[in-house]
Amino acid sequence: MVTPELTVAAIAERDGQFLVIEEWVKGRLCFNQPAGHLEPGETLPDAVVRETLEESGYRFRPEAIVGSYLWQSSRTGDLIMRVVFCGRCEDSPARQTLDDGIVAAHWMTLEDIKALGEQLRSPLVVKALADYQAGRRLPLDAVTWMPNRVA
């Protein structure tokens, strides 16, 4: 049995273009939304804000959840549960130093993203953008963080 890895991703749109990360992953140059794993004690919104800043330099403000996606990579066998948020980025990057492996952050049209084909990190990129374009939105409180506290 494979245990899914919980990840978050950000959809940020500006003037008909979407924020896309060009990155090296396991020796492969690919394109993805700003995305990553949770750190201990983080909420999902906190994680997507941090990951977007670390990978793009932009401060991201989540406004809604687009959806949650369960996908298994045929390449690696990894099982991914991704929660995708949409929101806004500040006009200019707040940080110049990006995470290791990140080549650049780009603003691209949906057509240009789709044209990347096999260069996309996974089919989750286009699926989440299609759901976003279709107006799919859940409130941020659709997912509740229940910290483990000793009474």
Textual characterization of the structure:
The chain has three helices and seven strands. Helix content is 19%, strand content 38%. Strands 1, 2, 3, 4, 5, 6 and 7 form a seven-stranded mixed sheet that branches. It has a single domain (5-139), classed as Nucleoside Triphosphate Pyrophosphohydrolase (Alpha-Beta Complex). The termini are far apart. With 151 residues, the protein is an alpha+beta fold.
Q: How would you sum up this structure in a few lines?
A:
The protein is of the alpha+beta class. Helices cover 19% and strands 38% of the residues.
- The total beta strand count reads 7
| Rg over CA atoms | 15 Å
Per DSSP, the total helix count is 3
Q: What is the CATH H-level superfamily?
A: Nucleoside Triphosphate Pyrophosphohydrolase
- Write down the CATH topology: Nucleoside Triphosphate Pyrophosphohydrolase
Derived from helix and strand composition plus strand pairing, the structural class reads alpha+beta
Overall pLDDT confidence: 93
Report how far apart the termini are. 34 Å
Strand content: 35-45%
Number of domains: 1
Largest sheet: 7 strands, mixed
Sequence stretches where pLDDT stays below 50 over 5 or more residues: none
CATH class: Alpha Beta
Helix content: 10-25%
Query: How would the global form be characterised?
Result: globular
- CATH architecture, by name, is Alpha-Beta Complex
Order of helices and strands: EEEEHEEEHH
